[in-house]
């Protein structure tokens, strides 16, 4: 018996739109690296902060 292999289409990175491979089917990768994830979080924080002012 072989293992079931599910192939998922790569999704674009939310910061740079580069295609990111999806190694797991239960949790998608949204960013191509840690730096882009951090940049996005910082941008969201300052965006929310500016909305309050």
Helix content range of the residues, please? 25-40%
Determine the N-to-C terminus distance.
61 Å
The total count of strands amounts to 2
Q: The biggest beta sheet, please?
A: 2 strands, antiparallel
Strand order of the largest sheet: 1-2
Shape: elongated
Query: Which class best fits the helix and strand makeup?
Result: mainly alpha
List the helices and strands and how they pair.
Elements: E1 11-12, E2 19-20, H1 34-52
Antiparallel strand pairs: 1-2
Describe the structure.
By secondary structure, the chain is mainly alpha-helical. Helix content is 36%, strand content 8%. It has one helix at 34-52, and strands at 11-12, 19-20. A two-stranded antiparallel sheet has the order 1-2. The radius of gyration is 16 Å and the shape is elongated. The termini are far apart. The model has no long low-confidence stretch (mean pLDDT 90).
Give a quick rundown of the structure.
The protein has 53 residues and is mainly alpha-helical. It has 1 helix and 2 strands; from the N terminus they run ββα. A two-stranded antiparallel ribbon has the order 1-2.
């Amino acid at each position: 018996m072989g293992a079931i292999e599910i192939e998922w289409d790569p999704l674009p990175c939310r910061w740079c739109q580069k295609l990111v491979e999806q190694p797991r089917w239960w949790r998608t990768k949204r960013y191509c690296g840690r730096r882009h994830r951090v940049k996005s979080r910082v941008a969201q924080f300052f965006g929310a902060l500016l909305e309050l002012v």
